[in-house]
Amino acid sequence: MTELPLQTRKKLGLVIDLDTCVGCHACVISCKGWNTENYGVPLSDQDAYGAAPSGTFLNRVHSYEVQPDTGPAQLVHFPKSCLHCEDAPCVTVCPTGASYKRVEDGIVLVNESDCIGCSLCAWACPYGARELDQAAGVMKKCTLCVDRIYNDNLPQEDRIPACVRTCPSGARHFGDLGDPDSDVSQLVADRGGVDLMPEMGTKPVNKYLPPRPKDQMPDIDVLAPFLAPVATEAKGFLGWLDRTLDKI
Amino acid sequence: MHPAPSVIFFSVFSGLGFGLLFWLGLGWPSSTGVVAFVFFAIAYLLAVGGLIASTFHLGQPKRALKAFSQWKTSWLSREAICAVAALILMAVYGAGAVFYNQHWRVIGVLGGLLSLGTVFTTSMIYAQIKAVPRWHMPLTPLNFLSLSVAGGALLAGQVTWALWLIAIAGGIQLATWVIGDTRFAASGTTLASATQLGGIGQVRAFEPPHTGTNFLLREFVYVIGRKHAFKLRVIALLLMCVVPVILLLVPFSHMAGGLAVLAHVAGVLTARWLFFAQAEHVVGLYYGKR
Amino acid sequence: MTHKQPVLDLSPPVSDEIRKTTCYMCACRCGINVHMKANGDGDMKVAYIEGNRDHPINKGVLCAKGSAGIMQHNAPARLRKPLKRVGERGSGEFEEIEWDEALQIATDWLAPIRAEAPEKLAFFTGRDQSQSFTSYWAQNFGTPNYAAHGGFCSVNMAAAGIYTMGGAFWEFGQPDWDHTKLFMLFGVAEDHDSNPIKMGIGKIKARGARVIGVNPIRTGYNAVADDWVGITPGTDGLFILSMIHCLMKAGRIDLDYLARFTDAPVLVNGDPASPDFGLFLRDANGNQQVICRKTGTLTAFDQPGVRPDLSATHVVGDITHRPVFHHMAEKYLTEDYTPEAVADRCGIPAKRIRAIAAEIARVAFDEAFELDHEWTDFRGDVHKTMTGRPVSFHAMRGISAHANGFQTCRALHTLQIILGTVEVPGGFRFKPPYPKPATAHPKPHCGVTPGKPLDGPHLGFVQGPADLALKPDGSPARIDKAFTWENPMSAHGLMHMVISNAHAGDPYKIDTLFLYMANMSWNSSMNTGGVMQMLTDKDASGDYVIPHVIYSDAYSSEMVAFADLILPDTTYLERHDCISLLDRPISEAGAAADAIRWPVVEPDRDVRGFQSVLCDLGARLGLPGFVDDTGGQKYADYADYIVNHERRPGIGPLAGFRGADGTDTGHGAPNPDQLDRYIKNGGFFTHHIPDGAQYYKPWNTAYQDWAVQTGLFDAPQPYLFSLYAEPLRRFQLAAEGHGDRQPPDHLRARIKHTMSPLPIWYETDQQGNDGFTITALTQRPMAMYHSWGSQNAWLRQLHGHNPLYVPTKLMREHGLSDGDWARVTSPHGEITVPVLEMAALNDNTVWTWNAIGKRKGAWALGDTAPEATKGFLLNHLIHELLPPKGDGLRWSNSDPITGQAAWFDLKVKIEKAPAQSESKPATPKQKSPVPAAARNLAWKTTD
Q1: Most distant CA pair in chain A: distance in Å?
Q2: Which pTM value belongs to this model?
Q3: Is C81 in contact with C560 (CB distance < 8 Å)?
Q4: A102 Cβ partners below 8 Å, 6+ apart?
Q5: How far is CA A127 from CA A16, B126, C153, C422, in A?
Q6: Measured between alpha carbons, how far is A142 from A88 in angstroms, rounded to an integer?
Q7: DSSP designation for C736
Q8: Less Cβ crowding at N or C end of chain A, within 10 Å?
Q9: What is the pLDDT of residues B168-208, one digit of tens each?
Q10: Which of C144-153, C417-426, C652-661, C812-821 has the least mean pLDDT?
C-alpha cells in the first residue's frame, strides 16, 4: 500500500557531516558495488565505455562553492541519497503500491516486482533520490542497505549501510533518528543538524551537519602581540639562548 | 521536465477524447446510429489511443494492471480507475445510442462526469507534484479541464459552447503561464534551502557528481528550447484559441470546422510541450540548473 | 492499521567465500575482503569488494577506487596474450604470440647486451610495488640503469625527509592522530597516503581539532580545513622559513629537544680556508662532537650523560667551531625572512603568517601534555614521561614537485623539529622500518662488468661527491644522469629523463628500454608529444633510435602502442605480490606490518604476473640470483621467490611466520607455508611495537632494541636529526674548489647556491617565462588513480573529462564563462581546452585533474569517449628540459639537488579561444590490441 504508515517504530537514517566529507566518492562506489550485487536488479550502466556513460547510482556526491561576505570562498562536498522522509511524497504517488515506507524502521523501499517504471515517484521526490534503471525499467533507490542492517550472515559491526562502513573520513553516521538518545540524534542535537528543503514538508529523516565556521583564525591578538620577540637579531638571540639554557 | 512525446500525446489526446465523451454523455449532440458511431469512435480513438501512448513511457508496461490498486493515495491510480469506469459507462451509453437508438441519460451523465473526472485526475498527477512549483497550483487542473471541455465541444460540433469555452480556456492558459512563471520563486526553494548552506554565503554549484549525464538530468532538467518559449506561447495561443475562434465565427463549413480542430489541437500540443519543457523540477537546483 | 508490506529476506547470503588480499587501485595498499560467489556454472567469481576491518592501513574503510576494483578486474582493456609489434611503433598494430616466443625474443635481445654492455639495458618500473625485487633483478643483470617512478613523483619529499630526520611523510610516517590538536597540511595533489589521511582527518575533526590547509587549491582535504592558506605555488618554503623566523625570534622553540636529539648543538668548522669548512667537528670514530653544558668539555654527542650545549663554541687551533644552532640563528633571524619580507611573494598577508606561527606555537607549547610512559634514551638518560607537542604536519606532492622542492621539504621538517614535534606524542611519527638515517641506507652503485651483476644496489643516499655515479672520465654512469653534478642526491633516479636522454644519446645510447607499469608515452611523461616522437624516431639507416622497447602492463595503455614486445601482466586479484619491509611496507606508527597479494581468482587470459616472468627471464639469461646450483630456474614464480629468497640470512621479503614452524618474526628460515599463513591471517602480518618504545624512536633504547630483534637493523643506530645537512655542504665545498672530484664549471655557482646545508628558499629558474605569469597545476582526483581509472566503468562516470579550473579573477579578466574554451600556452607548448570557474582558488593559478585525457584507441574506450575528445593533459605544456640557455647544454627541468621532476614550476598564459569540437592537441588514434567493449553493463555475479 502506498499509504504512509501513521508512524514507524524506528526512524532509521543517515547523518551526513558536511564538515568532514572530503568528497572522495567512496560512498558512491561502495553503494554501487553492494547494490549491484544485492537488493533487486543490478544498477546498470549504459554506454559504459563510450561517449556518454550513464549509469544508475543511488548516492551521488555534489560539490558547492560558498562565498561568504568576507573571507575566501569555501568548497563543500555534498553527498546525497534518499532521505527516507517521514512524509515521503514518492510513496503516496505510486499507483501500484511498489513504493512503500516500512513500518518497522521507516525505510522507504521499492518492491521491484510491482514497479511499472512510471517514474512518478522520481518526479515527486524533490531531492533526486530515485533513478529509473534503464536496463531493467524499474525504479532504484537507496535501501539503507536493508539487506545488510539486519543480516545474520554479517558480523554485528558490519550491519550498517555499505556507504557508512566504507566512508574513510567518518562523515556518514547511521542510526535511529526517532530515538532522541541515539548517537545520531545526539550528534544532530550537538551540531545543529538540518533538513534539506524543509519547505517541501517532506520531513526528511536523514540530517546534514553543517560545516563548522571556517577561516576564523584572528590575525591580530587583542591582548598581546603574537610572538613577542626575545631579541631583534642573532646576537641578542644567542644571549637570550644562553640565559634560557641556564634555566633548563 | 523532459517533454516526452508519449506523455504530451497522451494528455492532449486523451483530454480531447474524454472532453468529447463528456459532451456525448450530456447528449450534445444526441445523435444515434452511424453518426453516433463516428462520434464515439473518434472519442474512443483519442481517449484509448492516448492511454496506450501513456504506457510507452513505462519501464515495465506489462505490469500496468497493478496501477489500479492505489486509488486511496495515488492520482495515477485514480486516473486509471476513472478512465476505465468512464470508458465502460460511455461504452454502454454509446451502445445504446448506436445500436438501440436510446440515450440512457443517467448513464450518459455519469459517464460524462467520469470522463471529466479522468481529465481532472490526469491534471492532478501534475498538480500534486510540489517539487515542480509551476505545476503545483489550482490553475493546472483548470487548465487541463478547460482545454478538455473546450476541445470536446469543438469536436462535438457545439459551436457556440466551443466559442465561449475556447476563449475561456485561452484565458486560463494565459493565466497559467503568467502565474506559473512566478511559482518557482514563490515556492521559496533555492539552492540555499536545498543545501542549507545559505547561512555561510552565496552558494554556487561547483563540480557535478558525475561528469556525464544521468536519469535525473535527462528527466527533470530540460533546458533546450526555453529561449523560444515566448514565441511558442504566442503560437500556441494563436492556434489553440484565436484561429479556431475566427474560424468558428465565419459561416460554418466542414472545412473551417476541420481547420479549427486541427489548429486547436496543434495549439494544445504546443502548449502541452511548453507545460513540460518550461516546468522546472527543484532537483535541478542541486545541479546548478533549473 | 492495515499496512501491507512485502515480506523481505533480511538475511540474504552475502557471498560464498571471502578472500582477503591487498588492494592495488593506488599506492595506499589497503586490505580488502573480496567476496566471491559461484556463478551459474559453479565458478567462483568476484562479487563485491570491501575494506578489511582488521587491516592496519584502512581498518575496514575503502575508497571509491578500491570499491570499484571489480570493474578494474573485469575491464575490457585487459591484455590477453603476449604481443609482438607488426606495424610501425605507435600505431598499435600487434600480433598475439605465445609466451615461449615472447620470452625467446626478450632473451635474444637481452643476452648479448648483458654479455657485452649491460648498461645498454634501461629497466625502469612505474607504480611498481615490488621494487626490492625488480631492483634485485636489474642488479643481477648488471645494468646501472634501474629506477622506479620516484624521480618524477616525489623524491624531494622522500629524500628531504630521510636526509633531515631519517624518514619522510606519506607511507613512511603519520601524524599521531590520537593526540594531535593542530594538523597542518601542505601541498597540492591529495593522494598519499589516501585512506589513512582521510581517516585521520575524520578522527581529529570529530574531536574538534583544527586543520590548516596550505594549498593554492581548496578541494578535498583543504575543503574541510578550518583555515585555508591559498599560497602562491612554489613559495611554501619561504612561508615556512618565515614561520621559523617568527618562532625563533620569539623563543617559541623546543630547546631541550633541539639540544638532545638534533644536530643543533653539533660544532661546525668555521675556517673558510679549511677543506673541512662547514663540516662537523668529528672525533676519531667519526662521531659528531658537541660541548657538554654540564662539564663544558668537548665530547661525542652520544656519550652517556652528555647534555649538548646549543650555545657554546669551541676553538681548535685557531679555528672556531660554532654549533649548528648559531648558524641557524644567523640565517633565519635576518630581515630576509620576516613576514613582511615574504608576504607578497607568498601571497599571504604578514599578519596571517604571524598568526599561524603563533597558533602553532600555542598548541605545541601551551597545550603540551605528558604521556605516562617511562623511556630511556641512547645516552642512558631515563625520562619518566613522554612530552607531547600536539602539532602535526603532512605534505603532499605539491610542495615537492618544484625545482626548489627539496629545500622546501627540508624547511618543513626543520619547522617540525624546532617545535619538537617529531616522534613525540601528538606530533609526527615514523612507521617501521623508519626511522632510519640516510647514513644507514645504501649508497648508489654503478660498477658495471659485462656478464656480471652490478657491484651493489642502484639507488641510495650519497654523502658527498665521492658517492656520485660517475664514470672515471667524470661522465654520468647512468642513462638518467642520476647522482651526477646536475642532481647529486637523486635518490630515486630520474625516470622522466630516460627516454629523452636515450634518444639524444646523452650520456650514451642504449639498446633496450624495458618498462613496467609506466605510461611513459602519455600521462607519466613531460612533453608527451615529444616523447612519442622520440620513441618512434629512426636514424639514418631506418632503425629506431631506441632500438628495442619491451613493456609489461596488464591493460591496453597508451604506452603499449610504443613497445615492440608486450608481456601482459595480470590484474591485482590474479597475482602474488609482497608489500615488504625491504621496500615500502604497510606499517603503522605503532607496528611493523607487511602484506601479500595472492590470486583470489586465476586469470582467464594467457597472461602472467610480471615478477614471475622476471623469474623465468632471469633464469633464461642465467642471472646469478635466478639460477640454482645446476643452472636451472631458481624460483618457479614470484610466490616461490617471496617465500624462499633471503636478502640476508634469515631476512626475506616477508617478516611474518618465518622459521620452519612459522613462529619466527623478522628473522628466521624460509617457511614453505608462509603464504598460507598470511592468507589465513587476512593477507597481512602485524608486529606491534611495545608501549615504552612507541615514541622517540630514533633515540629510544627500547625501540632500537625492538627494531634489531625484528630484523629492521643489525645493531641499534641512534642518530641526531640533521637540521644541518652535511652531505649538501660537501657538494658546496667541492663547488668551492675543495677535493678531487670537481663539478663542471657551469654547475659550480648553482651547486653553491642551491645546496645550502641549512634549508633555504630560492626562486626556480624562470628563464623563458617572460609573459607566462600563471601557475598551472594538476591534482589527482581521489576517485581516480592516474590513467588506470578511466577504463573503469564506474569511476569514469565520476571523472570522464576534465575542465581547466580558472579562478574567478582570471575568468573575468579574460572574458570567460563556464564551458568556454581557452588556449593555454607555456614556453614549450599550447593546448586548447574547456574552462570552468572556481572561486576557492589562488588568484593566479589554474589547474586540472591529472591523467583524465586519453589517446583514442587506448584503454578499450570508444573513439568518442569524452576522455579522448574533451579530456586533456597538461603534460603537453611541460618540457623535460628547461628552455635552451645558449650554452648547448641540455638542462633538465628538475630539482638541481635531487632531480625531482619540476611538474609544478609550469607557467602559462591563457586566452579565450573559439569553441572546439575536441581538446587540442589531438593525437591520432592507436589501434586497440583488445576487442571493443560491451556497450551496456548490468552486473550480477550469480547470473
Answers
A1: 86
A2: 0.97
A3: no
A4: A5, A8, A108, A109, A146, C5
A5: 15, 17, 41, 47
A6: 14
A7: T
A8: C
A9: 999 999 999 999 999 999 999 999 999 999 999 999 999 99
A10: C144-153
What's the pLDDT score for residue C1?
Answer: 36
pLDDT at A195 over 50: yes
Q: How are beta strands C298-300 and C289-291 bridged, if at all? A: antiparallel
Q: What is the pLDDT of residue C655?
A: 97
| Mean pLDDT, all residues of chain C | 96
Q: How many CB atoms lie within 10 A of CB A223?
A: 5
Closest CB to C6: pick one of A28, A111, A214. Answer: A111
Q: What angle do CA C835, C226, A175 make, to 5 degrees?
A: 100
A89–B203 C-beta distance less than 8 A: no
B202 at interface of C, judged by CB pairs closer than 8 A: no
Give pLDDT tens digits for C245-282.
999 999 999 999 999 999 999 999 999 999 999 999 99
Counting as low any pLDDT under 70, the low residues of chain B are none
Q: Looking at the complex, does the CB of residue A248 fall below 8 Å from at least one CB of chain C?
A: yes
Spatial neighbors of C485 by CB under 8 A, at least 6 apart, are: C468, C743, C744, C747, C751
B194 lies in which domain range? 5-287
How many residues make up chain B in this entry? 290
β-strand pairing of C375-376 with C382-383: antiparallel
What's residue B223's pLDDT? 79
Give the CATH number of the domain where residue B133 resides.
Answer: 1.20.1630
Tell me how far apart the alpha carbons of residues B14 and B144 are, in angstroms, rounded to a whole number.
11
Residue given cell 605534505 in the structure block: C395
Nearest CA of chain B to the CA of A165: how many Å?
21
Report yes or no: C585 and C577 within 8 Å, Cβ to Cβ. Answer: no
User: B90 with B109: CB under 8 angstroms?
Assistant: no
Three cell numbers at C187?
601541498
Spatial CA neighbour of C26 closest among C169, C171, C139: C171
Interface of A with C in 128-187 (CB under 8 A): 135-136, 146-147, 150-154, 157-158, 162, 165-171
Q: Look at strands A74-81 and A99-101 and give their pairing.
A: unpaired
C780 neighbors C850 (Cβ within 8 angstroms)? yes
pLDDT in tens, C624-633: 999 999 999 9
Tell me if residue A81 falls in helix, strand or coil.
Answer: strand
User: Which runs of consecutive H residues, i.e. helices, occur in C489-637?
Assistant: 495-504, 528-536, 610-620
Stated as kind and residue range, the H or E segment containing C376 is strand C375-376
Element (H, E) at C116: helix C99-116
Say which residue the cell 646501472 belongs to.
C144
What is the total count of domains within chain B? 1
Total beta-carbon pairs less than 8 A apart between chain B and chain C: 16
Q: What is the pLDDT of residues C794-819, one digit of tens each?
A: 999 999 999 999 999 999 999 999 99
Q: What angle do CA C106, C109, C110 make, to 5 degrees?
A: 80
Distance (Å, rounded) from C-alpha C669 to C-alpha C650?
5
Q: Which of B196, B202, B219, B275 to mutate to test the interface with A (most CBs of A within 10 A)?
A: B196
Instruction: Find the radius of gyration of the CA atoms of chain C.
Output: 27
User: Exposed (0-12), middle (13-18) or buried (19+): which is A6, by Cβ within 10 Å?
Assistant: exposed
The ipTM of this complex is 0.97
In this predicted structure, what is the pLDDT of residue C2? Answer: 41
Q: Which amino acid is at C243?
A: M
Cell 543490478, residue located: A42
Binary contact (C798, B210; C-beta < 8 A)? yes
Tell me whether residues B210 and C838 touch, CB distance under 8 A.
no
Q: For residue A233, is pLDDT > 90?
A: no
CB contact under 8 A, B209 and C838: no
Of A61, A94, A208, the CB nearest to B209: A61
- Residue C826 contacts residue C772 (beta carbons within 8 Å): yes
Which residue, chain included where needed, has cell 507545460? B275
